[in-house]
Specification:
This protein is an all-alpha fold. Helices cover 61% and strands 0% of the residues. Helix 1 packs antiparallel against helix 2 and helix 2 packs antiparallel against helix 3. The longest helix is centred in the middle third of the chain and has 41 residues.
Length: 140
């Protein structure tokens, strides 16, 4: 059954929902059911509006992150230049948990950043070199 706006569907379920709407649209058109056509039209409008809002939010977050990252590069990683990046990450709930090393933060799935680190999911510290440098760190 099609459920609009209750959860964020996966891409596959969104395509299935649109296919279901298309089938219902064709059936309603064949029957000449104006009420069903209007209902499906509003459902499509809601999907489009939600998609546009999600896109605007994503672009806004990306612009915030881009600005903060540019400040870090321009400030050569100084504490003052990092403050804006910390502020942007904290505002989205994306700061790594306290005690997480930089390598753990990079290796952890993004959805786990706001949660305490799961030691089983993090790389074994003994397996990591003592002076590991990520390729982009050398440029800063």
């Amino acid at each position: 059954m099609l459920q609009l706006g209750l959860t964020r569907p996966s891409a596959d379920s969104a395509v299935a929902d649109l296919r279901e709407l298309y089938v219902r649209l064709l059936e309603a058109d064949d029957r000449g059911d104006v009420v069903a056509l209007a209902r499906i039209g509003w459902s499509l409008f809601a999907i489009i509006a939600q998609t546009q809002e999600t896109e605007r939010e994503a672009v806004g977050r990306l612009n915030q992150l881009r600005g903060a990252a540019c400040a870090v590069v321009a400030g050569r990683g100084s504490p003052a230049s990092l403050a804006l990046l910390r502020h942007v990450l904290a505002g989205q709930g994306w700061l790594p948990s306290p005690g997480v090393t930089p390598l753990q933060a990079v290796a952890a799935p993004q959805s786990d950043w706001a949660a305490p680190p799961d030691q089983a999911a993090l790389p074994d510290q003994a397996a990591l070199p003592d002076q590991a440098v990520l390729p982009d760190q050398a440029a800063l």
